[in-house]
Structure formats: structure tokens, C-alpha cells
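Q: Could you fold this chain for me?
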Amino acid sequence: MRQYQLRFSYVFFVMGLFLVIGCQEKSREVFSIKKELDKLIAQEDTDGDKKITIEDKGPKKFEFTNATGKRHLVEGTYHLSNLLQELAMANDQDTIAIGNITEAPSDRISRLIKTRYWDNLTRSIDKKGLAKVVSDTKATTDTLRLYVPYEDKEAISYFQSLETDFPNLNVVVLPKEITPVYVKTLNNRSGILNLAHDKKEGRYIGKPFVVPGGRFNEMYGWDSYFESVGLLIDDREDLAMAMADNFAYQIKYYGKILNANRSYYLTRTQPPFFSSLLKEIYIKHPNMSREWLASNLEMVIQEYETVWMQKGVRLTNNGLNRFYGEGIKIPPETEEGHFDYVLKKYAKKHKPDFESFKKMYQDGKIQDAQLDQYFIHDRSMRESGHDTSNRLDMICAHLNTVGLNSLLYKYEVDIAFLIEKVFNNDFNGQNAAQWLSKAKKRKDLMNRLMWDDELGGYYDYNFKTKQPQKIESATNYYPLWVGISSDKQAKRMIDNLFTNLVQKGGVAGTTDISDKTSPEAPQRQWDYPNGWAPHQMTIWRGLLNYGYNDEAQELIYRWLWMITKNAVDYNGTIPEKYDVVKCTHKVYAEYGNVGTEFDYITPSGFGWMNASYQLGLSLLTNTYKKKLNQLIDPDELFAKKAK
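A: Sure. Below is the predicted structure, expressed as C-alpha cells.
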């Protein structure tokens, strides 16, 4: 009987793959799925983690026969892990698509994101989706709590009617006024906050939303924007529009776009991206409903005015803005022991044993203004999305950050754009010129207080000391994306970017600012050597805005190469973040790395990482795509080596 072999036409010499020759068929073939899956795992998964990776010591060669007697030989880590994934995805079926095993890596990753991962990350808060949302790893008791706004009477009635269907469900109606003191009382009664809904044919239907993945089973503020960039590329504008509606609901009922829709985040927002989301939805669908755009634009403006422009909270006296988390005492969402490094210092000062001190401080029986201030800075840092970074630790609430003020500048120009283009330059009595005037004022302030002409870059400004904080950070390059920089400034910034932050796998969050004075100091996950999807995406677009196409192609390639190589070597792994120096998903920083623990196949990748891959592929030239599938090392491609 003839033996059929599976062929992959791309050269993976850097990985030492065994290449095979034979058919390239895309047809589905019938197999004994469980039998072949068990055989494959027994032979190739030598470390027992239910994955096939470069670390397994099997023969890297597997032969199997379909129901009609046709034989197949699969060789090499990448092909074998694809076979494992296809068998795992078959579930109760008895067929697999043979051609998928030999699929080019970037095609496979992109296809799975579009056809599988987005759907697996989608949630809704209604009868159909309730159990999946409320019964996650963060539920602290058997009671599943759903918090519903006082004013949303329809939702209250609907969910209270479901308590008989969900015996462990406890529907909690929030008070009319939500204060930090009240939110602290919820620390041990964590639950999900309701989001927007429709009513179709008399049925209550929760607006869908996309979660980041893993333990992050909520709708996160800035994650949702970056996820939506990927959704729009993948023609899922239905989900992107639903995300916008959920943003609007949060502003209306909770007063802000929340860090995430969980009870302990009620006092905290995240970096503002609502205007960017609304504008990108409109640009893709310019003939969409003016009524829908108007209702959401109203909420963008409300957020701008009530969340960001309230003096003494997030608006400082110099006219620029800061992050400011308004909670009280120790944030409850961190892992056990996260603050021990800090709290031990204060326990020594106040004398009680460590555990007694933590409880007494949290209960208000020990007062310490300095420690209170530390947690204001900490919550503000978490509001920035950069949880955590030495750039912001113990100082965040005193900083007008480049990133935040760039985003608010973008709000001002985006609102002006939509008023002019969609509403004939008249939106509830406001016109584009009024908003452009706000943007100009902010730009002038940023150039006066944040721009360092000697160093050639923007830096966060400490409004207490009236001095810039001269730390190199990926967020210092947001002005390129939003269009604040002059051409001359852009040239100097881009030179600095490649000198200071560009690594083999892309842009690092900061230069090395780790605390080397104490061996107990935590490794901050948003600092060097780690790189994150939102930083890459904004910087790519910033480079393209100023015509630096070659530089953009290089950074896109470096990032996609790292994602692709890790996926090829490690059974399709797409995690939350990467070490861009070592080009690995094995990041040993606080909180670990979400998206690396799974059996057989990642169910969903990770939200904004998926989006960065889709955006990068949409921007990458065909020449570089071919090299990407060959996994050509980026340092071999680019004359200007990363630092």
C-alpha cells in the first residue's frame, strides 16, 4: 500500500524541523480520533504537558492510517503539534482536515484567530451566557454575584427572575451613589457588573463583549479597544459596535469606562480609547446609522468632561491630566503576597506581627498616611493599565503622563472629526473648531512641559516637582500615533526609539529601570525586557503616520516573527506578553503569563495579542510575509540591528 506523507514547503532550518514530502490535500479524512490522539500523546508528549513542543524528546515522527487504509507520515515539531491540535478540535467528529497540518504558520495563526479565538473569547450577560461570566476563577465563594445598576430597572427585573434558574446566583442592586467606602465593602463579595442589552422579540439579550482570556474573564477598558482593532480587520464589526455600546453603558450607569466590569473596579477607569474605537468603526462603515453614532458620541463627550476634565481628580492645575484611582486601602484583585515587599516595611514601623498589621491597616485600626499615599499611587498605576511598572510605582498620581495626555488630545481631534464629517459641524451646539482649540491648547502644554529638546523626546511630567521624569517608555511615543509631533520632532523620536527600546522581538516597555538595590524587589511586568501588544500597535501606526514605512515594516516583522516562532515551537501558544530580548513567552515576572496554560490547543490565544497579529499581517508587505513563514531571523534581515 502506498504511504502518503505530509509536506510543508517552507524552510525551518533554524528550528531543526524534519521536513516531509507528499500530498497537500485540503480534504477531510475519517480517523479514529481518540485512538490516534492517545497514540500521538503517548509517543511525542514526553514531558506530559499535553502539548508537543521543541522541548519534547520524542522521535518527532508519527505515522497513522485513516479509515480507508491511507497512511500518513507527519514529521517535525510544528507539523506534529498541528496534528495534535486538529485531533483535539475534532471533538466528537471523526474527521480532520489534513491540509491544515501543513498550513503556513502565519496563515494558520491568523485563521484560528478569525474563526475560533474571537468566538471563544466572546461573552454576554444574559440567561445564555450568565454561567460562563459569573462562575470564573475569581469567584471567591459558591455564591455567584451579579451587580446591577440602581437605574437599570429592566435588567434588575430580568436577572431577579433568573435566580430560580441559577440557584447560586445573587443579584445585587447597586446603590444610587457609589463611593470608595462602599466599594471597599465589596472586597470580599466580588462579582460581575452588568453591561448593555437589547430587547429582541420580547427577549432580553446581553450585548456581547470580548474578554482578554484566561483568568481575565471580564470586559477590560483599554484591552477592548485593541481587541476591536482586530475585530474590525476580521470583519466582526458587530462585536466592535457592541463593545462601543458596552462602553457607553458603563459611562451612563457606572460613571466611567471601568478597568473591568467587576465590582472592585468601580472606582477605577483605564486609558481612554473610546473616541478611537468610534472613529475606526465609522471609517470602516461611513454609511452607518447616524443615530447610533450620535448616542455613542454623546457618551464619549460625557466621559471626557466628567471623568477626565474634573479639576482636582484627573485634571491638574497646569491643564494636563493624570491617572487617579479612587479606591481605599489595599487593592483586592492582586495575588496573595503581592504587596508583602512594601507592607513588611510598614509592619516593622508599627510593631505588630506582619499578618496582624495587614488586617489592622485594612480595617482602619492602624492609620498611616504615607502608606495610604502609596496605595493611591498604586491604584493610579493600575488605572493606567501598566500594572505594574517602576516608571509609575510610588509616583503615578503625581505624573501628567505622555500617554494619557496624547490619548486625550486624540479625543479632542476625534470628536472634532466626527462632528465635522458626520454631523455637518453641529453636534448639540458644538462645532469642530471648539474641540480643535482644546487640542491645540493641550499640544502646546505638552510641548512646553513634556518635550525635552536636548534628548529629543517627550517625558512624563511630575507636576509636584515641576520636572519631567526622564525615563524611556513606549508610551512616550504615543504623540506619533495621535499626530502631536512635528516632522522634526518625529525624526528625533524615531532615532531614540531604535536606540533605546527596539529589541530583537520588538519594542520593550521601558529601558532597564529595575530596582537593583534589593533582591526582594519584584520584577515589574510592564518594564524591560517585556513587550506588549498595545505598545507595538500604537508605535506601528505612529511610524506610518509620519511616513516611516521601512521602520514600521521592521518593527512589525520583529513582533510577528517572535509570535510566530513561539507558536511554531510551542504548540500554537499565543500569550499575554513576551520577553522581547530573549524572544520568548517564558516571562518570569509578577502574575506569570496568561495564555500559556492549556491542553492540546490554545482555546483563544490572548485578546490584544490576537489583534496585534491581525493588524501586523494587514500591514506587512508580501515579501516580508514570505520571510515570516520561513521564520527568517529579523537580525539577518535588517542592517540596523536592535539594541
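A (continued): Confidence is low (pLDDT under 50) at residues 1-25.
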